[in-house]
# Entry
Amino acid sequence: MKFFVDTADVNEIRELAATGLLDGVTTNPSLIKKSGRDFKEVIKEICSVTSGPVSAEVVATDYAGMVKQGEDLAGLAKNVTIKVPLTIDGLKACNYFRAQNILVNVTLCFSAAQALLAAKAGASFISPFVGRLDDIGTSGMQLIADIMTIYRQYPTFTTEVLVASVRHPMHIVEAAKLGAHVATAPASVLKSLVNHPLTDKGLDQFLKDWAATGQSI
Ligand code: G3P
# Structure
């Protein structure tokens, strides 16, 4: 499973990239707002930190506008992935970018039917939002299971399932059990994957016992 970090904070991205465990980055207009930075500048900087796909989202809602903005964004760096919303115009733009060999992430997916359309439109990534579905009392993970089942029926589909709106480590574990290709999560969630109290306790004991031997390596 690939790990993307869902942030526009370059310091967070640098820290995670240094672990060697980071495969890409996703941003959205809300994360750009949170960063307080110029959109294109921050995308360029992120692309210099990671060679993996970096999702940059268009804000036009019509096909021509999405194509114009997407081409502009794609010119910033070779690893920019154009993020388009799951609308008819977004799917048309997805088709267009795919034909230009530009990576596309179709975002705001909340149903298996939408994911089927994105695959048919040639999306590189489909982003189902699991947390937001959980928030309204439905099962985000059931959507991932449904999409994986559908995509497996059609070996010609090349779309990767990018599990988004991840809120906690179990979202990632459950998605991995279903074979989802990518999880994008806030840096705090990715960092928390390593934590286990028994690891801390065990390491503490090993270090105490080692110190008691009086040896050094
Ligand atoms: O980037 C899309 C997605 O990950 C947003 O997550 O937490 O705002 O629902 P969230």
Remarks:
- The two ends are 36 Å apart (CA to CA).
